[in-house]
Amino acid sequence: MSLFDHLPILVVLIPLLAAPICSLFRHGIVANRIALAAAWTTFGVAILLLKEILSNGTVRYQLGGWEPPWGIEYRIDILGGYVLLIVTAIAALVLSFARRSIESEIAKRRVAIFYAAFLLCFAGLVGMTITGDAFNVFVFLEISSLSSYALISMGKDRRALSAAFQYLIMGSIGATFILIGIGFLYMMTGTLNMDDMARILPDVAETRAIRVGFAFLTVGFGLKLALFPLHLWLPNAYAYAPSAVSAFLAATATKVAIYCLLRFLLGIFGVGFSLGVMPFDMILIALGCAGILSSSLVAIFQKNVKRMLAYSSVAQVGYIALGIGIATQTGISAAVMHMFNHAMMKGALFMALGAVMYRVGSVRIESFQGLGRQMPMTMAAIAIAGMSLIGIPGTAGFISKWYLVTATLEVGMWPFALLILIGSFMALIYIGRILEAAYFGTAKPGIVVQEAPIGMLVPIWVLVAANIYFGLHTELTAGLANQATAALMEALP
Amino acid sequence: MSPDTLLMWMLLLPLFCAVGIVLARRNANLRDGVSVVFGIALFTVVALLANKFSWDSAPVWVLAEPIPGLALKLSPEPLGLLFALIASFLWPITATYAVGYMRGHGETNQTRFFACFALSIFATLGIAMAANMLTLFVFYELLTLATFPLVTHAGTAEAKRSGRIYLGILMGTSVAFLLLATIWTYHVTGTLDFTRGGIFPAGTDKAMMSVLLLLFVFGTGKAALMPFHRWLPAAMVAPTPVSALLHAVAVVKAGVFTLMKVAVYIFGIDTVAELNSAQFLSYLAAFTILAASIIAMSKDNLKARLAYSTVSQLAYITLGAMIGTTAGVVGGSMHIAMHAFGKITLFFCAGAILVASHRTKVSDLSGLGRRMPFTMAAFTIGALSIIGLPPTGGTWSKWMLVQGTLDASQWVLLSVLLISSLLNIAYLLVIPMRGFFGNVKDCEHDHGATTGINEAPLPCLFAIGMTSVGCILLFFYPDGLHALAQEVAK
Predict the structure, then answer these.
(1) Is A406 on the interface with B (CB under 8 A)?
(2) What are phi and psi of A73, to 5 degrees?
(3) What are phi and psi of B472, to 5 degrees?
(4) Rounded distance, CA A251 to CA A249, Å?
(5) ipTM over cut 0.85
């Protein structure tokens, strides 16, 4: 076996091993360099993996050479490779952005520990994405969750502690539910390997234990992905976490949870069971719509811009849930596409907020007054990423909205199409509030604010450019999402 | 140059112009010269392209293909060429006017102003040349965004409030209704290309098409059909050149142009005639014509009066598109041009009056004709064209529209058109009448001389002269325009 065959394990191993190394150093700068190197290498590996998947199909890797279903198997199909690409790209960009932001927001002695926790969280998310073993999902979920509690609690604001605690409680309940769910599945099928489970499950699907297991799993993942009304932990966690953490978690953590949910729904239970026999499609549609409307509305009235965008994230999860709930090829691929596009726009937005935090020291809407002149590049980034969030044509957000609306029309649910577009309009209002303050507000006299340093601007603008690029060329986003969904939906009975 | 190259330059010229303006920001004369030179070049390009046009060899320029099978692409057709001709002809004139106005009025942030102006023209030409509904939608939204900084140019609380209304209504309707209608149409037909005779396959459910038409029309907020017209009076807070070119020509015409395109190339004229909702919409347009005229009469602020007059005149075009007759479409298309020349003249005059005498109210204009004879004379010509009286171009378009209502045997609509012409006289001609025959009124804004000629700066007068002469020429030589409009309805 050459090194090339070990790519699937490398992608987890690199961040997982780099984490303890980071914590050994006292100087933040060394830890930063190590984390950066680890993240970019992982990103490179993820690209190689995706290429491999696209040319040779699903990549399988047996840990320690133990054959499944006895050993743990890593299995990366197109969808996995796609999500892996999102997670690693965002991690690499956020870490490139993070150095100055972290230095200003976190006590010096904790910086190295911060990078260690960040890498652990990253490794956990990557692991959840690539594993083919149900219990392993739980293990990686806990790795990422525990480290993200730590990351959030490092926020400068004291409220970060209570936010982290709230997330800890809710997240643990979610994780426990997932574990119970997996337990039920194991009890009925006698295996933990996902493929194996999927094979055996149809024989025992008509049992109460499976249904209960299904319920536990969906509620558990619902908590992790902040599905309305299980989203209560999210706004505070994102609002008070260090800027870089908000950017990373907003762009990746919920996406991976959604991916895992999809894995279980489509890859194990099968569309027919999860979105047909069980009424989960209706539940997803209803909760998705409620999430879109209520969270967008709440976002409009937020004074803290990070909280505003956090609520907006809940609304975006609503779009994704709606797409999955429609349960057609177009609907689910619209959801998958929106995972990618939302990661790009929210990543850019939260990083730009990080830049504002770095220069101004606050992200309340009043502090944006006059920033349009003082930080033109940062505000332009917010404007463009904001347009993508609204779904203005020419940006990535438009593409996901287009497919999502098409999906609702295909099944004749045109009121939902209107609802999606009303959601866009509400996004226009809250993004408009930020831009209005930035461009029409007058700065407080005497305070001079400089443009963000170039090291921050570059990662932000890479994502902003991606938002535009993927608004015009969708072979990667929409093309892969369609392929991935088609593969998932036809692989099963 | 080949038509393909011309088409490319049509979009690139205004874009380069915006860049040029920003680069030349240090030298005001150079910067303002850039707009005029690029404007003239652009008109030349459009005219060359229009001259060479034929249905069979129309160039196509594909920009990108964001959704498989659905590209962002541009291709000229007669209606688009007509619109592009008007916009590109009036742009250098407005740019000249704006130089006089902005300096005379001491406006700030002129670089941003002129750059956004060029961007708006870019978006307008994109709308005019769009080969399918998706492309049109993209440029439609771009136009809203590019004009937003122009509307809020003053930066005052009032400008901000107006900006909110502007963005709220235009974006809100387009995102909620127009986009929905577009995606729905694509879902039903599998294409969004503008095609002669429409794209709906025969036997498509009429009720659904009715709903779609409603969504299209209400989604096109720029057409200012009531009840989505509030943004237009709100936009009058912008500097006058913006009101003149954008809110009398580019933006509002983009709205009715979209409706025309939808009626002619998405539904097809014959199909529109069969739809119940088209009937409803033509009556709504008739209501808008009358209601807006009556509101215009009650407005004392000159620009507000002109804005409501625009709302009313736009509804003429909407009506022409919705009655589903050839004459209606021809009349509507011609009215896009005729109203453009008439209304831009009126706005130019309003701006000239503001710059020269600082008056904004109709009631303050008494006797002003003796101080600004040239401006007031031009105002009269513009007003005549809007009303539709000889010797101005507006005569022909109103003629065709009336003929359209006759062809469709819509007696109610016919009488609305006639009554509205009377109302136009009442609220427009009264202004020059007061100006020439009213008693000179002392106004607190007057600085020094109250007698003698005191006209606006020369660039303003030049622009006013060009457009008012245009109104008259269009009466004597409407053939070219008529031929293009005929081509649309073929």
Answers:
(1) yes
(2) -115, 135
(3) -75, -45
(4) 5
(5) no
Query: Which of A373, A402, A428 best tests the B interface by mutation, with the highest count of B CBs <10 A?
Result: A402
User: Global pTM?
Assistant: 0.86
Chain A residue whose CA is closest to B184: A409
In this predicted model, what pLDDT tens digit does every residue of A365-412 receive, in sequence order?
Answer: 888 888 888 888 888 899 999 999 988 888 888 888 888 988 888 888
Which ranges of A225-304 does DSSP label H, i.e. alpha helix?
233-240, 243-262, 271-272, 280-300
Whether B187 has its CB under 8 Å from any CB of chain A: the answer is yes
Look up residue B137 and give its two tokens: 């939608």
DSSP character string of A84-136: HHHHHHHHHHHHHHHHHHHHHHS-GGGHHHHHHHHHHHHHHHHHHHHB-BHHH
Q: Which residues of B touch A393 (CB under 8 A)?
A: 134, 137-138, 141
Q: Is pLDDT above 90 for A180? A: yes
Of A387, A409, A425, the CB nearest to B176: A425
As a whole number of angstroms, the distance between CA A185 and CA A95 comes to 38
| Residue from A401, A425, A480 to probe the interface with B (highest B Cβ count within 10 Å) | A425
Over the stretch B328-345, which tens digit does the pLDDT of each residue have?
888 888 888 888 888 888
Query: Could you tell me the two tokens for A276?
Result: 């047909």
Answer whether B489's CB lies under 8 Å from B330's CB: yes
CA B259/CA A359 separation, integer angstroms: 47
CB contact (8 A) between residue A428 and residue B145: no
Backbone φ/ψ region at B224: left (φ over 0), alpha (ψ -120 to 50), beta: left
Distances (CA, A) of B102 to A224, A398, B98, B241, B244: 57, 37, 6, 9, 13
Tell me phi and psi for residue B25, to 5 degrees.
-65, -25
Mean pLDDT of B100-126: 81
Q: Is the peptide bond before B391 cis (omega within 30 degrees of 0)?
A: yes
Contacts for B161 with CB less than 8 Å, ≥ 6 apart: B234
With CB atoms and an 8 Å threshold, state whether A393 touches B137: yes
In whole angstroms, give the CA distance from residue A414 to residue B176: 12
**Pairing between β-strand B70-74 and β-strand A59-62 as defined by DSSP bridges:** unpaired
Contact A249, A148 (CB under 8 A): yes
Query: Which chain B residue has the Cα nearest residue A391?
Result: B175
CA distance to A421, A450, B480, per residue, from B53 (Å): 38, 53, 13
Q: Where are the beta strands (DSSP E) in B243-309?
A: none
Q: Where are the domains of chain A?
A: 298-493
| CB-CB contact of A169 with A232 (8 Å) | no
The answer to whether A299 and A308 have CB atoms below 8 angstroms apart is yes
Which residues from A are below 8 Å from B134, CB to CB?
393
User: Where are the alpha helices (H) located in B53-205, listed in sequence order?
Assistant: 78-104, 110-129, 133-151, 157-173, 179-189
Q: How far does B482 lie from chain A, in Å, by closest CA?
A: 34
* Residues found in chain B: 490
Q: A391 in contact with B at a CB cutoff of 8 Å?
A: yes
Size of interface A-B (CB pairs under 8 A): 76
Q: How far is CA A366 from CA A232, A443, B164, in A?
A: 25, 9, 18
CB B178 within 8 A of CB B220: yes
CA distance A185 to chain B (A): 40
- The answer, yes or no, to whether residue B106 has pLDDT greater than 60, is yes
Is B165 in the A-facing interface, judged by CB distances under 8 Å?
A: no
Q: How far is CA B86 from the centre of its chain?
A: 9
What is the C-alpha to C-alpha distance for residues A315 and A309, in angstroms, rounded to an integer? 10
Chain B residues closer than 8 Å to A417 by CB: 180, 183-184
pLDDT at residue number A492 = 47
| A103-142 per-residue burial string, b: 16 or more CB within 10 A, e: under 16 | eebbeeeebbbbbbbbbbbbbbbbbbbbbbbbbbbbbbbb
Chain A interface includes B146 (CB < 8 A)? no
